[in-house]
Amino acid sequence: MLLYDNRIIEREQARIDVEDRAYQFGDGVYEVIRVYGGQPFHLKEHLDRFQRSAREVRLSLPYPLEQLEEHLFELMRRTGLQEGNLYLQVSRGTAPRTHAFPAQARPLIIAYTQPSARPLKEQNQGICAVTTEDIRWLRCDIKSLNLLGAVLAKQKAADQGCQEAILIRDGIVTEGSSTNIFIVKDGTVWTHPADHLILHGITRDITLQLAAVLQISARTEAFDSAALFDADECFMTSTTMEICPIIKVDGQTIGTGSPGPVTRRLQEAFQKLIS
Ligand code: PDD
Fold first, then answer.
1. Ligand 1: which residue has its CA nearest to atom 2?
2. Which domain holds residue 182?
3. N or C: which end of the chain has fewer CB within 10 A?
4. Is the C-beta atom of 179 inside 6 A of ligand 1?
5. Number of domains within the chain
6. What are residue 236's DSSP bridge partners?
7. What SUPFAM superfamilies does its record include (predicted)?
8. Rounded-to-integer distance, Cα 176 and Cα 129, Å
9. Measured from the CB, is residue 85 less than 6 Å from ligand 1?
10. Is 172 helix (H, G, I), strand (E, B) or coil?
11. Which residues contact 116 (CB under 8 A, 6 or more apart)?
């Protein structure tokens, strides 16, 4: 079952034209929303970001967000999703192939559910990462369907037996290929500012709010790769990974080489939000 435009249909009945602009140009935007106990987590923030991403690429959604929200609830109900992800995208639609916007094309919304367990092993033990140059475009604040930069980075990590690639632009740590990156130094949490060089992660925001509640000082300021290797702790955040420690980068141990106390406190506070 999936949401196709404004209808819920069987996946086998969904038809994507070869000239769908998402297929040919990556011309569209998307969201990934986590579902806990049948309830979408921070749905409003995801829908607002979806609308903003669409607006930034001058794509008007085919119907209002309120209607989309209703369709998503209906989809979750019909698929019986309890624990997993809700994937949502909009393409600029189907039209004869030419780069500029088609005069007449109805944007196509698609959403489907994927049951999946929380990555508890990774969260408990920590993961390893590699660094790689951030070769993406300069509007990483838009959750665009153009994901080749992320795909290549993640594959570099996978080739080295690691789970994430940390992207470095002009010596600065921007974010992960599909996560935001934080370090902890002398009790202070650091993460890149929410500008055009990173996705404004919803989990990043939640983590900063939790830090404030826990009276952990936090700075949304750029830091370089030397600071990453010199950090006491490092962790990544995302909808699917939540808060996950990074214990090794490029084969080098970060801090003690096991998940650190500040990361643990934030993870525990996050856990309370979802249980
Ligand atoms: N990734 N940075 C990038 C480049 C991302 O693609 C994501 C999300 C994040 C974290 O954002 P959030 O906390 O809002 O999920 C940061 C999603 C989960 C994905 O592509 O699967």
1. 179
2. 120-274
3. C
4. yes
5. 2
6. 181, 244
7. D-aminoacid aminotransferase-like PLP-dependent enzymes (SSF56752)
8. 9
9. no
10. strand
11. 83, 84, 85, 240
Q: Does one domain contain both 134 and 262?
A: yes
Instruction: Give the tokens for residue 14.
Output: 């969904």
CA distances, 153 to each of 135, 149, 160, 176 (Å) = 9, 6, 11, 9
pLDDT digits (tens, 9 = 90+) for 127-179: 999 999 999 999 999 999 999 999 999 999 999 999 999 999 999 999 999 99
Spatial neighbors of 264 by CB under 8 A, at least 6 apart, are none
247 Cβ contact list (under 8 Å, min separation 6): 125, 126, 127, 128, 234, 253, 254, 255, 257, 258, 259
Structural tokens at position 67: 């209607």
* Same domain, yes or no: 165 and 256: yes
Residue where one domain finishes, among candidates 115, 146, 174? 115
Structure tokens belonging to residue 55 = 């607006």
pTM above 0.90, yes or no: yes
Taking the centre of ligand 1 as the mean of its atom positions, its distance from the CA of residue 65, in whole angstroms, is: 21
Kindly tell me the sign of the dihedral angle through the C-alpha atoms of 108, 84, 56, 45. positive
User: CA angle 75-78-84, nearest 5°?
Assistant: 65
- Answer yes or no: is the ipTM higher than 0.95: yes
